[in-house]
């Protein structure tokens, strides 16, 4: 009750207008604290996600898997769809591309054929 008694002591000392002003300031302070908590939660989520991604990158580097796509230069690199992929990653990419590019699913026939040539070659 000590905090409440202190509040009423100062409220009586500064009068009604001061009390209203004081209460408005308390309300604004409370809202500011709530906004800061929300922002801190978002920042915390970003930190957790970035940490997870850093661990994933470290895992990929140490395991020898190469799932990234290298830069493709026109004419210099024949691989476009599966550039830098090997093993299971290559098969997974193939399955994804078949779903996207197959003419029966509304894909482009020429693009599908080029993808098939690259996969088989």
Task: Explain this structure.
α2 runs antiparallel to α3 (109-120). The protein starts with a helix and ends with a helix. 74% of the residues lie in helices and 0% in strands. With 121 residues, the protein is mainly alpha-helical.
Brief account:
The protein has 121 residues and is mainly alpha-helical.
* Share of residues in strands: under 5%
The CA-CA distance between the termini, in Å, is 81 Å
Low-pLDDT windows of residues: 66-76
**Overall pLDDT, averaged?**
75
Order of helices and strands: HHH
Proportion of residues in helical segments: over 70%
Radius of gyration, whole Å: 31 Å
Oligomerization state of this entry? single chain
Number of helices: 3
Total strand segments = 0
State the shape: elongated
Secondary structure: elements and pairs:
Layout: H1 2-63, H2 87-101, H3 109-120
Helix pairs in contact: 2-3
Which descriptors apply to this entry?
121 residues; mainly alpha
